[in-house]
Write the structure tokens for this entry.
Amino acid sequence: MDWVKTGQGRRDDMVREQLKGKNIVITGASGGIGAEIAKLCAASGANLVLLARSIGKLQLLQGDLQKRHYVKVDVFQLDVSDTEQVQKVFGEIFASVGYIDILVNNAGFGVFREAHEVTIDEIKGMFNVNVVGLMACTSMVLPKMRERRFGHIINIASQAGKIATPKSSVYSASKHAVLGYTNSLRMELADYNVLVTSVNPGPIATNFFEIADEKGTYVKNVQKFMLKPQYVAQKVVDSMLTKTREINLPRWMNMGSIVYVLFPRLFERIGRSVLNQK
Ligand code: NJP
């Protein structure tokens, strides 16, 4: 009985209806936010293409989603930092599904250490995955999305792309790059009806910190305001095929970035110790 549904209930139905039968590609779908986004999209009747290096985890998720939701789920092993592999895999994706409606660039990782402690290989690793990989996957979908004048590119960036904090110089730089790219892309694609959204979360309870936070200091310090991956995923899915410029979570954290832009010197002076949680 639709007439008794709340505003939220009606919105959920609309999202579900919009995503039904759409082809959605998610990078880094073997765990964390990516896997949660995949579950919600499958529940909405979307066809999925799931990408990550851990093919075994992808196959488990594929089996589960197909059984629960009767949707088509393709999985491909892909290291997004290998640009030749990106071209090959996207060729196979187009051969399998024809076109892509939504690309979620989610694959990424961070290493939280002071700049002088990060190795050159780690610097290259973060930029090759978080930045070059994201751009390479985007390049693969752009020609068809522009031609069809339809599509949505969702880039998982970070609040670290807006406020750089101690011990995250390289990760933060990589996410600043993602935001710069995303903002330009949005303007380039505005006349082609292709939507572009950035997602800027604060800390989320995922395996991300197994690599990022070797000593567990950060996780301990920010435990009380860690976001649940299911919550972040729901916000991402709610934004699909809508003109959402940015998703900032939690909202209060984004206020910090606004104050930072307005009063950078003061913010760094006062905020340095508060921001030094790693
Ligand atoms: O992390 P995690 P999240 N090629 O570790 C994949 C951003 N973020 O879900 O390849 C392809 O559970 C990896 O798969 P696998 C963050 O920067 C997070 O939290 O099999 N895929 C796995 O599926 C990232 O962009 C927080 O190992 C690669 C996935 O990426 C996104 O959220 C806060 C890959 C990572 O899952 C998802 O991270 C924030 C590669 N080379 C932004 N390398 C947070 N958690 O606090 C990794 O602001 N993956």
